[in-house]
């Protein structure tokens, strides 16, 4: 197996790394490599997969596991064993500030505790196929966001050093600042159309979800689309207004009920989307798995079934994520 470490992730330190390497190296042939910049984990994962790694582990935040997945998908086996040899399974160890994907799979939010669960999952041969989404050809594991939420992520990324220490308070402050002076709250930046004919003529926010939740607020999940799972097509949630009462109502609904954001009024909630196009009236921000990707004038969203293999917690494992 190969352990890809993002040494700049907020929860990664020397003591944690040493213990994780001990746990993984006791029964497995372990190679450890470090990322040095954004995008590096894609190349490292691709090289490890080509060299025959059976399991590739990402110790870092959600951006690191996203890059690892994209590196494995470059190889043509798609992580599913459909090529000449079995593709590498991937797994996230939580080293970032929120760790949405690791927690959505059922791993503890502590990286050492998650490693112990991973070791048990390997013993139990707890593997599963999983869908991914594609946004302009790049895979996302849990969501891609356009418009307002991506503008918030962009503001957070501009304060990168603070992200390691401030966590959720920084995101809340960035959301407020973005709403006050960072976006046009009157003129929506894009339209949306699904391949099966559902149309939104103007939206300020669009989130395509490959699984649930959208994120965590502390220990509480923000369930925009609870039906979104790694076995189903994408769910698409949009917001046509950035009026404060609309944002608050959507957030409260996602926190308090088991149906997520409602479909109707100023919001759309469309399940079972296999393809959609977000077309801009002007360039708009987008983010993928919590990492800011830049500006684009169009975003093509697609569902790709059974694209990766994941190492899951063993069936008898339960944890407070």
How far apart the termini lie comes to 25 Å
Over the alpha carbons, how many angstroms does the gyration radius reach? 19 Å
Gross geometry: globular
Helical amount: 25-40%
Number of helices: 9
Structure summary, number of beta strands: 16
How much β-strand is present in the residues?
25-35%
Stretches where pLDDT is under 50 for at least 5 consecutive residues are 78-85
- On the 0-100 scale, what is the average pLDDT? 91
**Biggest sheet descriptor:** 10 strands, antiparallel
Alpha-beta classification: alpha+beta
* Element order: H for helix, E for strand: EHEHEHEHHEEEHHHEEEEEEHEEE
Describe what this molecule looks like in 3D.
This protein is an alpha+beta fold. Helix content is 31%, strand content 33%. The chain is built from 9 helices and 16 strands. The strands form 3 sheets. Strands 5, 6, 7, 8, 9, 10, 13, 14, 15 and 16 form a 10-stranded antiparallel sheet that branches. A 4-stranded parallel sheet has the order 2-1-3-4, sandwiched between helices. Strands 11-12 form a two-stranded antiparallel sheet.
Question: Could you list some keywords that capture this structure?
Answer:
321 residues, 9 helices, alpha+beta
In terms of topology, how is this protein built?
Blueprint: E1 2-5, H1 14-25, E2 31-34, H2 40-50, E3 55-60, H3 62-73, E4 89-94, H4 100-105, H5 111-123, E5 127-135, E6 138-140, E7 143-147, H6 148-157, H7 160-166, H8 168-181, E8 190-194, E9 199-203, E10 205-209, E11 215-217, E12 220-222, E13 234-239, H9 244-256, E14 267-273, E15 275-288, E16 291-311
Helix pairs in contact: 1-5, 2-3, 6-8
